[in-house]
Specification:
Largest sheet: 8 strands, antiparallel
Distance between the termini: 38 Å
Shape: globular
Number of strands: 8
Order of helices and strands: HEEHHEEEEEE
Structural class: alpha+beta
Strand content: 35-45%
Length: 150
């Protein structure tokens, strides 16, 4: 019996570590030499900053409601530097349903540029997040698709 547990416990630890790594990979894609990362959190958390903090009033302030979330995207070039001059949009909706398109605004936070805005995630999900980034000097926008579950 003890021998079985000695084999099972490391196998379970490996499975948990692999699952965590898979979740991390789902928030990152490399498209056309650009790394696209996204994060999402309840709007109420994003709005908890004190009044003088720039994130408190970002995107015209955090909306209320249980279905409201803050979507943040970071773009990193092949040189490892954040891309500061992109025009970024996202279409967000339940899989198989029409999504809502939103412009992601530039968010200079801690000397690094990200792009974000508030989105609504109604229903049970899962959701499709389609990121479209227009970069100077590129004819076509970068497109990255992500599936998200709350």
């Amino acid at each position: 019996m003890k021998r079985w547990l000695v084999t099972l416990i490391p196998a379970l630890a490996l499975f948990v570590a692999a699952a965590a790594g898979a979740a991390d990979r789902n928030q990152h894609k490399r498209v056309g030499g650009i790394d696209v990362y996204y994060g999402i959190m309840p709007a109420a958390i994003a709005g908890e900053h004190p009044a003088p903090h720039p994130e408190k009033s970002m995107h015209r302030g955090a909306p209320s409601g249980k279905d409201r979330y803050h979507l943040v995207v970071a773009l990193v070039g092949a040189d490892g530097q954040r891309i500061n001059d992109a025009k970024v949009e996202a279409t967000v909706g339940e899989l198989g349903m029409a999504g809502r398109r939103v412009t992601l605004e530039a968010m200079p936070v801690a000397d690094a540029m990200s792009y974000g805005n508030y989105v609504t995630l109604k229903g049970r999900g899962p959701y499709r997040i389609a990121i479209e980034a227009h970069l100077p000097g590129r004819e076509r926008p970068l497109e990255a698709l992500f599936d998200y579950r709350r």
